[in-house]
Design goal:
Blueprint lengths: L2 E4 L11 E5 L2 E5 L5 E2 L1 E7 L6 E7 L21 E9 L2 E8 L4 E7 L8 E5 L7 E5 L2 E8 L1 E7 L12 E6 L5 E13 L2 E10 L7 E7 L7 E6 L15 E3 L5 E8 L5 E11 L2 E4 L8 E4 L27 E3 L7 E2 L7 E4 L14 E4 L4 E9 L7 E8 L4 E7 L5 E8 L5 E8 L4 E9 L6 E7 L6 E2 L4 E2 L11 E8 L6 E11 L3
Antiparallel strand pairs: 1-23, 2-3, 3-5, 4-24, 5-6, 7-8, 8-9, 9-10, 11-12, 12-13, 13-14, 15-16, 16-17, 17-18, 19-20, 20-21, 21-22, 24-27, 25-26, 26-38, 27-37, 28-33, 28-38, 29-30, 29-37, 30-31, 31-32, 33-34, 34-35, 34-36
GO biological process, one term: carbohydrate metabolic process
Family: Belongs to the glycosyl hydrolase 43 family.
Protein name: Beta-xylosidase
């Protein structure tokens, strides 16, 4: 049974995709920055249905910034533009981190369930790609001025006396963002290096460019292999590589900026002409196309959760905002509930540890929870957050006298929470909901609460969501609980319900 691919293949934030074909599956890794665990490994048989099967690491570093101690954070940093490769039965993921300014290489022989072993090179390789050639391995990286550095065969160090030089200088004239986001391959006697670039002239949108040579180090010729925005504003579809399916057909997964929902992956057929890859159909990224791949449903990458666990191990769809404090959350103390306990003092959800998140989904979606309030203390604040730098929250806040209010807050411009509306509240539990609309870059979120299921009341204001580089990530929904006064309180969440709202 063939599959019809409708783009985007995932209408959610899966930035900088790197995809390989291995056996009967396709595997994809993407940027995860400050979210932990990091570098999700996604798997599909049909390029349509993707599930998360593993993470490369639980914790990247254990320091004040990653642990959000004393105001530290790594928003927009952490893992960037990870590259996924397989060589001689071993799977590799590599990336650089802007906060540590180091290059990380992880490897495993079991991509689905294995533990990943890591090595660290104290050097920054911007947007790297690994290139294996028999018993040699290279990393190609950079922005505009693209460099190549040879690594030792075990990928633990720069090879002494190995290749380490400028590889090529990308076009300068008329270009704003010069070539970056490398994906490197050797195919049928040619070396192919794919990049994203952003011209200041012409269409002025990001596009996919390819350099090729019969020699590792050039000389090179280049072609623009895709320049299309699929009719969405002026956001070009670009940055990614190519891969061959078991049936001999070639494909690519690139991404497109879709404002507040994030950077969403787009799949394309790839054909060949005169030794050059041809992306898409008739020079365009198609809204849909058919493949002979067998349609194979999977668990989605965003899910509802009843929190009916028997061990403290969350579904793979969940990621924490920065490193969690594992002593302050539990799924087993009260079966059927996620319990978030207060710890270090914070004055904003942006500084609160143990915020548990999932992606939002276009074109529209809603997220709901039921929060029990009986164990919150003075200074505690718990609820739902539409998480980006310009956040919005809805939840319960307990004042210094122990009185409870349902509040909607936004970023006051300095990262603190500004209360837009506060409603006195005396019930022992509260239903909370956020509805998102990303269609045609409307990018609005609305906030609701109820004392009885279904009797929703709006609160606060419509949040006009903004994708900014402060977080460099699409909006996520988070469950949070923190205190501004004293630790010891906790919030019990009965469930998390995700619903896609098709337009």
């Amino acid at each position: 049974m063939s599959s019809k691919i409708n783009n985007p293949i995932i209408w959610a934030d899966v930035p900088d995709p790197s995809v390989i074909a291995a056996g009967e599956y396709f595997y994809m890794v993407s940027t995860s920055m400050h979210m932990m665990p990091g570098c999700p490994i996604m798997r599909s048989k049909d390029l349509v249905n993707w599930e998360i099967v593993n993470y490369v690491f639980d914790t990247l570093e254990d320091n004040d910034q990653h642990n959000m101690i004393d105001g530290g954070h790594i928003y927009s940093k952490g893992s960037w533009a990870a590259c996924l490769r397989e060589h001689n039965g071993i799977y590799y993921v590599c990336f650089s981190s802007l906060d540590t300014r180091q290059f990380y290489v992880y490897h495993t022989n079991d991509i689905d369930q294995g533990n990943w072993q890591r090595s660290v090179i104290k050097q920054l390789f911007h947007d790297p790609s690994l290139l294996f050639e028999e018993d040699r391995v290279f990393v190609i990286y950079g922005n505009g001025d693209i460099r190549i550095t040879e690594l030792t065969s075990d990928l633990t160090a720069v090879k002494e006396g190995g290749v380490n030089q400028l590889l090529l200088e990308a076009q300068r004239e008329g270009i704003g963002l010069r070539a970056e986001g490398c994906h490197a391959y050797r195919i049928n006697g040619f070396y192919y290096y794919f990049f994203i670039e952003w011209p200041k002239d012409g269409n002025q949108r990001r596009r996919q460019i390819c350099y090729r040579s019969k020699q590792l180090l050039g000389p090179f010729e280049s072609q623009i292999v895709l320049d299309d925005n699929m009719g969405y504003r002026n956001h070009g579809v670009a940055q990614g590589g190519i891969f061959e399916a078991g049936n001999g057909q070639w494909y690519s997964v690139l991404f497109q900026d879709h404002d507040a929902v994030g950077r969403i992956p787009i799949a394309l057929p790839v054909s060949w002409k005169d030794g050059w890859p041809v992306f898409g159909l008739e020079g365009k990224a198609p809204e849909e196309f058919t493949t002979p791949l067998p349609y194979t449903p999977t668990a989605p990458i965003i899910c509802s959760d009843e929190f009916d666990y028997t061990v403290n191990k969350l579904a793979l769809q969940w990621q924490w905002n920065h490193n969690p404090d594992h002593a302050l959350w539990t799924l087993t103390e009260r079966p059927g509930y996620l319990r978030l306990k207060t710890g270090a003092l914070a004055d904003s959800v942006l500084k609160a540890r143990n915020t548990l998140t999932q992606r939002t989904q276009g074109p529209a979606c809603k997220h709901e929870t039921l929060l029990e309030l009986t164990n919150l203390q003075s200074g505690d604040h718990a609820g739902l957050v539409a998480l980006q730098h310009w956040f919005g929250t809805v939840g319960a806040r307990i004042d210094e006298h122990g009185a409870c209010s349902i509040v909607m807050t936004i970023n006051d411009g300095e990262g603190r929470e500004q209360v837009v509306e506060s409603v006195p509240y005396t019930a022992e539990h509260v239903y909370l909901k956020i509805e998102y609309n990303f269609e045609n870059s409307i990018d609005q979120a609305c906030f609701y609460f109820a004392s009885e299921q279904g009797q929703w009341q709006t609160i606060g204001q419509t949040l006009h969501m903004k994708y900014t580089l402060d977080h460099f990530m699409g909006y996520r929904t988070g469950l949070f609980c923190y205190t501004s006064q004293q630790s010891g309180g906790y919030a019990d969440f009965a469930y998390f319900h995700h619903s896609s709202l098709l337009k």
